[in-house]
C-alpha cells in the first residue's frame, strides 16, 4: 500500500503542499492524471478545467525556442510580447534574442533554465489546476521562492498542488496533505 485514507477536496485558488515521501506524491500525481492504473479508490476531477502538470524537467522539443516554449500549441497562439514579458519575469532575459533560433533545447539549456522555461509555459497557458512535482528543484531556495511567488501573483484563481523539498515553499501554501 502506498497511500491510504486520503479524503480531501481542493478548490480553485487553493494552494496545497503535498508532504511526506516525494515518490509517493509523484504516484499520487500520476493517479490524478490517469497514468497510475494500480490501486483502488476514486479521484474526482473538475470538468473542462485545464490541468497543467510540471515535472522536474519540462519537455522541450527540438525547433525554435519560441516553439519549444509554446509546446504543444503552435507559437502563433501566444503574442511575442507575452512570451518576452514572462521570460523576463522568470529571470531568462538572456534568451530574448534566441526565440527564433533552432536548437535541441534539452541539450543546450541548463536544467535551471529549463525549469524556468516551464514557468514561462505555465504563465502562458494560465491553467486552473497546477501540479508542481519538484518543478524548481534545481533552483536555490530564493529562486524557487521567486517562481512560487510569480505563480501566486499571476495565477491567483488557480489551484496549486506542490511536491517540493524546499522548506520556504510552505509560505506559499494554505495547507498541507501528508502522503
Please characterize this protein's 3D structure.
- It is a single chain.
- α3 crosses α5 (about 110-125).
- The radius of gyration is 16 Å and the shape is globular.
- The mean pLDDT is about 90.
- The N and C termini lie close together (about 10 Å).
- It has six helices and seven strands.
- The strands form two sheets. Strands 2-5-6-1-7 form a five-stranded parallel β-sheet, sandwiched between helices. Strands 3-4 form a two-stranded antiparallel sheet.
- It is about 35% helix and about 15% strand.
- The chain has about 180 residues and is an alpha/beta fold.
- It has a single domain, classed as Rossmann fold (3-Layer(aba) Sandwich), CATH 3.40.50.
- β5, α6 and β6 (about 160-165) form a beta-alpha-beta unit.
Question: What keyword list fits this structure?
Answer:
6 helices; two-stranded antiparallel ribbon; Rossmann fold; 179 residues; globular; alpha/beta; five-stranded parallel β-sheet
Offer a quick outline of the entry.
The chain is α/β, with parallel strands linked by helices and 179 residues long.
Q: Give the SSE order as H and E letters.
A: EHEEHHEHHEHEE
Mean pLDDT: 91
Give the strand line-up of the largest sheet: 2-5-6-1-7
Do you know the CATH architecture?
3-Layer(aba) Sandwich
How many helix segments? 6
At the third CATH level, what is the topology name? Rossmann fold
Beta strand %: 15-25%
Low-pLDDT runs of 5+ residues are none
What's the total count of β strands? 7
How does the helix and strand content classify structurally?
alpha/beta
- Report the helical percentage: 25-40%
Q: How many domains, as an integer?
A: 1
Amino acid at each position: 500500500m502506498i497511500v491510504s485514507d486520503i479524503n480531501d477536496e481542493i478548490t480553485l485558488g487553493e494552494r496545497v503542499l503535498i508532504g511526506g515521501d516525494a515518490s509517493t506524491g509523484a504516484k499520487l500525481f500520476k493517479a490524478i492524471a490517469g497514468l497510475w492504473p494500480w490501486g483502488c479508490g476514486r479521484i474526482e476531477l473538475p470538468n473542462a478545467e485545464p490541468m497543467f502538470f510540471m515535472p522536474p524537467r519540462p519537455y522541450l522539443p527540438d525547433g525554435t525556442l519560441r516553439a519549444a516554449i509554446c509546446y504543444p500549441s503552435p507559437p502563433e497562439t501566444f503574442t511575442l510580447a507575452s512570451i518576452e514579458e514572462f521570460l523576463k519575469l522568470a529571470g531568462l532575459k538572456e534568451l530574448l534574442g534566441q526565440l527564433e533560433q533552432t536548437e535541441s533545447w534539452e541539450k543546450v539549456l541548463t536544467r535551471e533554465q529549463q525549469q524556468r522555461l516551464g514557468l514561462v509555459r505555465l504563465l502562458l497557458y494560465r491553467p486552473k489546476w497546477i501540479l508542481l512535482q519538484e518543478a524548481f528543484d534545481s533552483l536555490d531556495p530564493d529562486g524557487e521562492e521567486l517562481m512560487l511567488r510569480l505563480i501566486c501573483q499571476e495565477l491567483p484563481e488557480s489551484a496549486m498542488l506542490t511536491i517540493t523539498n524546499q522548506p520556504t515553499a510552505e509560505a506559499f501554501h494554505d495547507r498541507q496533505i501528508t502522503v
